């Protein structure tokens, strides 16, 4: 399908966000797309309501998983289904977003500028504000630390409005070509949550493709409440950020970088413990348990979904 895009959306207990996201997509102009909406084993009845709402929509394909497969596992279901229809581009988009009417068209224009461009990503603002959530990504390939360029800054600064190559494109809004998927494959599913798209970006860049930040494509991010939001993240979030940063280096980098990654793993473990006790977080015992499990499972490279805390 020449220049047609498959939009991959992943629902998990997010009826209102998913509907709002699709409504904003339906307001887009100058683009051609179909939506592959995947339910990642929701438990709140949202999937039944979503199927009722969209069962007659000709450009929305409804798919579901048999278990919660995490970010990569759920999105990969949609990508596999879309690949069978041979789209040119695949747009991973978080459902807790709304998009500018030109968001997709600008991504496609950007990715077509150079045949060596494999991935492009949007400027992402906090929903309802002009403050940046993402204006490019940085990855430390010795420690596994990742960060967003411009986070919390006003979006009208000139340096955040320049198209440029960047360290990685966040999976919140990531457009990738079919050629890249054919060459590199899909995202690793064993990270389960966080860092899987970073791993994918690194592998894509290693193969010689460019990853480009496209500020003319604008997405508004609510910041998902499924993981507690940014102010009070769920305890298991620390588990993934500790374990997966270390795993990222082991899986993608040469042996001589392992020691620095190990040192960072220990530092991050101690820092996370300190944060729990310094800030007024709830469920401190649970949070400490997840931090400890993240350290141990990082050492052992035990991947997959987080263990369940039992009080």
Question: Would you mind describing this structure in some detail?
Answer:
This protein is α/β, with parallel strands linked by helices and 311 residues long. 38% of the residues lie in helices and 21% in strands. The chain has helices spanning 15-25, 46-54, 70-83, 103-111, 178-184, 196-206, 235-252, 258-278, 284-300; strands at residues 5-11, 33-39, 60-64, 89-93, 97-99, 117-126, 132-134, 137-139, 146-148, 164-165, 173-177, 210-221. The longest helix is centred in the C-terminal third of the chain and has 21 residues, at 258-278. The model has no long low-confidence stretch (mean pLDDT 95).
Helix-strand pattern: EHEHEHEEHEEEEEEHHEHHH
* Average pLDDT, all residues: 95
Flag low-confidence runs: none
Largest sheet: 10 strands, mixed
Rg:
19 Å
CATH class of the largest domain: Alpha Beta
| Total number of strands | 12
Secondary structure tally, helices = 9
